[in-house]
Amino acid sequence: MEEQKENRPQGAYNERPDPPAPIAGKHCCRLDGQENNVQHCTSSSSDYSDPVYKEIALTNGYINRMSRDELRAKLAEFKLETRGVKDVLKKRLKNYYKKQKLMQKESSNGDSYYDYICVIDFEATCEEDNQPEFTHEIIEFPIVLLNTHTLQIEDTFQQYVKPEINPRLSNFCISLTGITQDHIDKADAFPQVLQNVVEWMRQRELGTKYTYTILTDGSWDMSKFLNIQCRISHIKYPSFAKKWINIRKSYGNFYKVPRNQTKLTIMLEKLGMNYDGRPHSGLDDSKNIARIAIRMLQDGCDLRVNERMHGGQLMTVSSSAPIEGAPAPQMPHYRN
Question: Given the DSSP bridges, would you call strands 152-160 and 123-124 parallel, antiparallel or unpaired?
Fold first, then answer.
C-alpha cells in the first residue's frame, strides 16, 4: 500500500540517527587488504584514542576522494555489488572495510542477526480520495521469509482476506492492487487468515528453533493496518507483531538520506535495482523490500528492531536496546 503510506502524518516517525556501532579490536588494515605493522588493539570499543580508529578515518578519507569509477573498480576487486549512486558505493566500500577487518563479530555471538526476517507489506481496502472516515481493511496478507545467513528468500506466504465493513472493492482499489472482487469473495475472513499465518510460521519453527523478527516498509502496516484490523475482527493485537524493523528508518539512517528519499522505488533506484513484479501487489512489494534488506545486509547494515506497539501507540525502539527476536507466534485471544 505504498501510495496510501505516503500520506502519513509528519510526526509518525520520530526518527533519530542511530549512534555509531561499537568496533571490536582487530589488526589495522589498509584498503588493499594488507595488514599494517601496528599493535593488536585490546582496549575497549569505546576508547576512541585507539590507533584502529585513526586507521578507519584515514581509509574513509581515501574513499571519499575516489571517483565513481575508482569506487566501482575497488568494489569489483572485493567481489562486491558495483551498482548504485556514488554515495551508496562509498558507504558500501567503507562498511566492507570496517566489517571485514574490524567489526566482524565472533560466530558464537548469536545476537548479531536474527536467523530470519519476515517481510510483510499488507494491501488494504482504499478509495481514490480516501476520506478520513474511511476504514482500511486488510485484503492481502503476504510474508517473504528472508534467511539472514544465506541472504536468500527461503519461502513465501500469501492469502487474500475478505473485508467486513466494505466487502465490495472500489474500482480504484482493484486497479491499484490487482486484487479482484472474485479473489475477495473466495477469501477467508481475517481471523482465519491470521490463524493460517500463525500455523505457517510455526511449521518453520520461528520463535522456537530460529530467531526472527518482522520487517515492514514504514510504520503503517503494523501501527495502523494491523491495529485497525484486529479491532474490526474483535481480536487482540498479536504479540509476535508488536516489534518490527521499519526499513525506511534503517535505510535513511544507514545511507544518511532524508525521509523523502526512502520511498520503495527510490530505495531500489539508489541501490541500482529496478522494481521486479507488479507494484502494489503485497507479495511483489514484500519481495522487493526483501531485496533492499539483502543489499543493506551485504553493505554492512545491522538491521534490527526500531519500532514497536505499546498500549496501542507507535513507539521508537532505541538502537541501544538489547537485540531480541519475536516470540513464538500464537493466535491472539478474542476481545470481550
Answer: unpaired
Strand partners, 215: 119, 245
Q: What angle do CA 229, 223, 133 make, to 5 degrees?
A: 60
pTM: 0.74
> Residue 206's beta-bridge partner residues?
210
Beta strand spans in 110-242 (E): 116-119, 123-124, 138-147, 152-160, 212-216
Residue 215, amino acid? L
Longest Cα–Cα distance of the chain, Å, equals: 71
Tally: H helices and E strands in the chain: 12, 8
CB-based burial, 282-316: b 16+ in 10 Å, e otherwise: bbbbbbbbbbbbbbbbbbbbbbbbbbbbeeeebeb
Residue with cell 577487518: 101
pLDDT tens-digit readout, 39-95: 333 334 445 565 667 778 888 888 999 999 999 998 988 888 999 999 999 999 888
Residues recognised as catalytic? 123, 280
Length of the chain: 336
Torsion-angle region of 230 (φ positive above 0: left; ψ -120 to 50: alpha; else: beta): alpha
Give the burial class of 173: count Cβ atoms within 10 A of its Cβ; 0-12 exposed, 13-18 middle, 19 or more buried. buried
Q: For residues 96 and 82, is the Cβ–Cβ distance under 8 A? A: no
Q: Which three cell numbers stand for residue 42?
A: 585490546
pLDDT tens digits, one per residue of 116-142? 999 999 999 999 987 888 999 999 999
Confidence of residue 4 (pLDDT cuts 50, 70, 90): low
Q: Are strands 138-147 and 212-216 parallel, antiparallel or unpaired?
A: unpaired
Question: In the chain, what percentage of residues exceed pLDDT 90?
Answer: 68
pLDDT of residue 273: 97
Task: Give CA separation, 98 vs 19, 71, 83, 317, in Å.
Answer: 16, 16, 20, 25
* Spatial distance between the Cα atoms of 153 and 295, rounded to a whole number of angstroms: 12
CB 252 within 8 A of CB 262: yes
